[in-house]
Amino acid sequence: MAKPYSKLEQNVGGLHCVAVSDVGMRRASNQDSLAISLADSSERWQNHGHLLLVADGMGAHAAGELASQIATDTIPHSYLRQSAESPSEAIVAALRAANDAIHTKGQSTVDFQGMGTTCSGLVLLPGGALAAHVGDSRVYRLRCELFEQLTFDHSLVWEMAAAGDAAEEDVPDYVPKNVITRSLGPHSTVAVDVEGPFPLATGDRFLLCSDGLTGPLKPELIGMVFRALPLADVAQTLIDLANLLGGPDNITAVVAEVVDVAQLGKAKPSETAMNNPTVIHSSQPSRRGGETWWDWVLRMVSFGRQRGKACPELATRQPINIRGKAPYRQHACTASATSIESLSDIVRQLEGLENQREWNFDWKEIQTYRHQAHQAIAKGEYQSAVVSYCSAVRRLMQSLRETRRKKPSDSTIDLG
To answer: What is the pTM of this model?
Structure first.
C-alpha cells in the first residue's frame, strides 16, 4: 500500500536524486508511485544507465494504487532483462510489459476492471537522456535559465490543442482538463512515446512529476524554484507549494541533478541506500543534524547567490537519431521582481492564517524569512529572495504535517 508521505534520497557517481510523494490535502489515499533504479556497476551504467519513474494511478477503490505500484515494480525489472535491445527499445518493451501486467490484473476481478496508470520514465545513459511516457505525468529538464518540458501530455486538452495547432490555454474551458487519452492498463496494447536522447551536461537537472504538482503550480514557478534551491529541498518545496494552493490530488516529484557528468557510472550506490530507502511518514518532521534553522537560512541564501553560473559545455554532441519532438514547452525561470510576486503573495497570505489556525507554531520565523526576502529584493538579489520565501513555505508545511487532522483539509490559499 502506498504511504501517505514518503521520501528517499540517493547519491551515486556524479548523480544526486531526491524523491517525495504526498497524499495531498483532499485525498484519502495515495495512488501515486515512484521508483529510482540506479546502476550499481560500470557495465550496467554502459548498458542500461539510471532509471527514474513516476506513475499516477486511476481507478476506484484500491485499483489505481495497485496499477501504479505494478508499473513501478514491473518496469525496472523488465527494462534490465532487455539486454539484447537498445535502451530506447528496452524501455518501450518495459512499459508494454507493465501494461500487460496491469491489464491482466484488471481483467481478473470486477473491482479492478478499467484500472490504469500514467507513467513517465527517465533513463540517463552515457549517450544522453531518454524520456519514455504514457499519460500526463511529465518530465522536465532545467539547463541554465531554461525549463523545458520533454514530454507531451496525453490528455484531451493537449490533443485538441495539437490538432488545432494552438496552445492548451486556447482550448475552451468547457473541455475537461482531467481527461487523459492514453494510459497503462485499460487496453491490451498501448503506444509509448520516447523522446531523445538528449546530451547530458554537468549541472543539468531533471524533474519527473504527477499532475498533482503541475495542476496547482505554473511551469514558470516550478522552474524558478527548481533553479534557485539545492536539490535536497526542491521536491519538498514544490510539494508544499502545491499543497498550500489546495493540494487537490496526490503529488509526486522526483528530481535529479548531474553533479559531475565525468563521474557518471563510476561509483556504486551504497547498499543501504539501494535496499533501504529513507521513508518519512507525514507525522515525522525532517531534521538537519545539529544545524539551527538560522544556520540553514544563511546557507540557503548563500546557495541562491551561487546558482546561475555560465552554462556548461555539453558533455556529448547532439545525437543524430533523436526520437520525438521535444521540447514541447520552454519556460524562462530566472527570478525577477515580477516572477517572484506569486511566491511573495503566498507567504503574505501564510501570515494572514496566523489568527485562523490553532497551530503550535512560531510565526516569527515566517516573518523573519519574509523580511530577509524583502532585503534581498531591495538589493536586486531575486534568487536569494526565492530561497527565503521557500524556506517560509517549508517551515509552515512541516508544522501543518505535524498537526493536521486525519480528515482531508479544505485549506487553500487564494491567489486569484
So the answer is: 0.86
